[in-house]
Amino acid sequence: MNTLYSFVQFKYLPLSLLLLLLSTSSSASAYIFSDGEISSRNDLFREILRDEAVARLNELGKVSDADGYLERTFMSPASLRAGNLIRGWMEDAGLRTWVDQLGNLHGRVEGMNASAEALLIGSHLDTVVDAGIFDGSLGIISALSALKVLNVNGTMGKLRRPIEVIAFSDEEGVRFHSTFLGSAALAGVLPLTALQISDKSGVTVQDALKENSLEITEENLLQLKYDPGSVWGYVEVHIEQGPVLEWLGFPLGVVKGIAGQTRLKVTVRGSQGHAGTVPMSMRQDPMVAAAELIVLLESICKNPKDFLSYDGHCNDISLESLSSSLVCTVGEISTWPSASNVIPGQVTFTVDLRAIDDMGREAVIYELSNQMYKICERRSVSCIIDRKHDANAVVCDSELSSQLKSAAYSALRKMAGDIQDKTPALMSGAGHDAMAMSHLTKVGMLFVRCRGGVSHSPAEHVLDEDVWATGLAILAFLETQL
């Protein structure tokens, strides 16, 4: 499947790409299931993989730090309550459980050979602000549902390798603006300095953990890293967060790779003053400078070829990739002192920049920084650009992808009978814990269809039957480990 799929709205697709999509799927609505169409055989495990899983998703979706919307950030009271719920479900599935010193929740079954390389399955329990109930949670709950089926069937003890489900404590990075805290620690790529990152209240990561009776030091942070020789691979199930699977009419898709991403914090400082007394010609206004910088960002990301040249920073392949995959977002902006009758003295905003091609992403950041500094100099304001987060693009393991593809096909065949279409393969524009875990072991991902491609929103929705299909697919994948 074309890497463009995950980055476009389909009403803007060129005719050639629409034709390619049509050739990929023989029926854009073929796999929307109803009870009357699904086999009643007992190998579908409706009660566990659908009914119970959906009920648990809804229950977890009510565990929030806010009234009226879902918000669950790193080490918040709601995150602890959510962890307790998930821990109970892990034990219900027959897993041994524990919480590590960075707040990650683990559930493990040793199988027939406790010393064999383990299969890790995970996703995150934290959310964004005003979140949906499926992002992160679906991957955890569907894995536990599949393991519960093995436990009920009495086959879990026949697994030839340990299986470990991990609910990561922080993936979204909402509280500390540093994503993958949980998974990066296990992969051994979380810097020691991360413990001293502070939130808006001045509380550090280390403080937040200590407040919840988790003593983390530089020494035991290093000890959290898994031995690569003890891990066979990592698998993550996640909603697509895009419209491709829905458009194709397919509940499940295999992920080929994940876009690299960079997060910047831009601070513009000028001269604070009275809104009514400082002439326009004498102002050093960081707000209008920041506005120009944000428009510049949009221009570069919409038309990278107009700004980048074929040189040591970028080649023709990178430019072509950027034209189809580059996305940039300013998601947060703040001013000081933030009063309607005061020219601000400082403006800070964030930049989230993603692309499939790492060389191209670096070229954009290089050019963006140069242009930003020039604008700030012309406007007589200062500009500081801090790189807060970097993650290189990830290519998923071909063996794991093939197994997940077969498992998805097997699940859909059980539900719908004979199917003609191939399981779609997609690129992910969203970051996932698999990006951090790729530094430890091979990774594979399965995407699940979500309505309208909407995510990071209470409108996020997955059909009950697609939750069921997801559980069946993970079950089929786990059965390859028997």
From TrEMBL:
The keyword Nucleotidyltransferase does not apply. Residues 1-30 form the signal peptide. Its cofactor is Mn(2+). This is allantoate deiminase. Its main location: endoplasmic reticulum. The gene is LOC115968382. InterPro entries: Amidase_Cbmase, Bact_exopeptidase_dim_dom, Peptidase_M20, Peptidase_M20_dimer. PANTHER family: ALLANTOATE DEIMINASE-RELATED. Its EC number is 3.5.3.9. It is found in: Endoplasmic reticulum. The lineage of its organism: Eukaryota, Viridiplantae, Streptophyta, Embryophyta, Tracheophyta. It catalyses: allantoate + H2O + 2 H(+) = (S)-2-ureidoglycine + NH4(+) + CO2. Residues 260-373 form the Peptidase M20 dimerisation domain.
